[in-house]
Amino acid sequence: MQTPAASEIEEDEGRREQNKEDSDCLMDVQDISPSDYEADSEFKHMFRYFETQELSGDDKVDRTTLLLNDQFILQEGQMYRIDTPKRIALAKLVQLRQRLCVPKNINMR
User: Would you say the pTM of this structure is higher than 0.85?
Assistant: First the structure.
């Protein structure tokens, strides 16, 4: 059995440290509230549609909301975008991923 080279060990440690930093960042976004989505220009129409089934009245915005609503879900007051692999072969191997939708005002904090 071969022992890993020093560079491989350093790479692995670097990845672990980056993953730890990433998970620390993820902990901070748990403070997203429904009012953050309602105030956000990017997510407010989709969030309102999920909450009340109401559209904005603007044809262009409503068309986009209706076309994309199957790519979003609302869980416990937080909105997620569902990513599906574009290639069929990958779709069989990779599960759907949920990406948290983070309003701009949260990014600025």
Answer: no
